[in-house]
Amino acid sequence: MHRLILVCSLMVAAFAARADVVDIDNAELAKLAAAGVPVIDIRTRPEWEQTGIVPGSHLLTFFDERGQADPAAWLERAKAISKPGDPVVVICRTGNRTKVVSQFLSQRAGYAKVYNVRNGIVAWTKEGRPVGSAAPALAACRAAKTC
Hints:
The protein is α/β, with parallel strands linked by helices.
C-alpha cells in the first residue's frame, strides 16, 4: 500500500513539474506578443531573410542547415531572452521544429509556459499579418551574441 501511495505521489509530482505546452494560432500569437511575451524564432538566417520575421521576434537558431543542434548552448542563449519560470513563444517555418523545442523547454529546461505557434511563419504570412525585415534583428542579436 505504501509503495502504491509513493508511486502515485511521484506521478502527480512529475505531472505538476511539467510546464504547459500550448499550441496557438496566429491570433493568440499576436495577443501574446502585444502583451510582451517573448517570441523566439528558431529558424535559420536564410529562412529569416526569405520570409521576414514576426515583429519583435528574437532570432535564435535551434537546428542549423544540416539539422544539427546544440541544445545546451541554445538554452544558455534562450535564457537571456526568457527565464525558465516565464512564458515564452517559439515559432519556426511550419510548426514542426518548434514541437521538439517546446517539449525540450517544457520537460528538460523548466519553462513554466511554452507556446508553440501551430503552422509557423508560413501561416502568419499567408494570413497577411505583418512581418519585419530580419536585418535589424540579426544585427541586434549578433551584437548581443544571442543568435
